[in-house]
Amino acid sequence: MSSVDNGGSAANGGEPPRNTRHPTGIRVTVALLAAMCVLLGPVGYAKGVAAETNSAAEWFTLGFGASVGLPLLGAAIATVAGDRRAAMYSLVLLAWPVVFVTALHLHTGT
Predict the structure, then answer these.
(1) How many CA atoms lie within 13 A of 21 on its CB side?
(2) Domain that holds residue 96
(3) Whole-angstrom distance between the N-terminal and C-terminal Cα of the chain?
(4) 3-class DSSP state for residue 22?
(5) Could you tell me which of 93, 94, 87, 69 has the C-alpha nearest to residue 23?
């Protein structure tokens, strides 16, 4: 049996290993998820506000899934890849629903 050291090495100050192979690919993936979040969240919510009773729930669910689920997915991907900064930026997007819901309600007056 061999023992595997999953901790950091003395070369990088005891820090866990970082993603050095494809950091740009991880950040591009997180950026695409963020763009989809920023676009699809408000669209789904606005269509839910304007929809009839039967289809409003589906639009609200799609808007919520896009505006909350996609940043969480991006943060999970970045965390597994070892990119803490991209994970942090993904989690900051969780404030986006508060911004666009407030803006839509102030604009429509409802």
Answers:
(1) 3
(2) 21-108
(3) 66
(4) coil
(5) 87
Residue at token pair 């803490």: 84
Extract the tokens encoding 29: 């993936």
Stated pTM of the model = 0.74
- pLDDT tens readout for residues 48-88: 888 877 888 899 999 999 999 999 999 999 999 989 999 99
Does residue 16 belong to any structural domain of this protein? no
Question: Does 27 reside within a domain?
Answer: yes
Tokens of 93: 């997007």
Q: How many domains does the chain have?
A: 1
Supply 18's token pair. 């970082």
Give domain status of residue 9, yes or no.
no
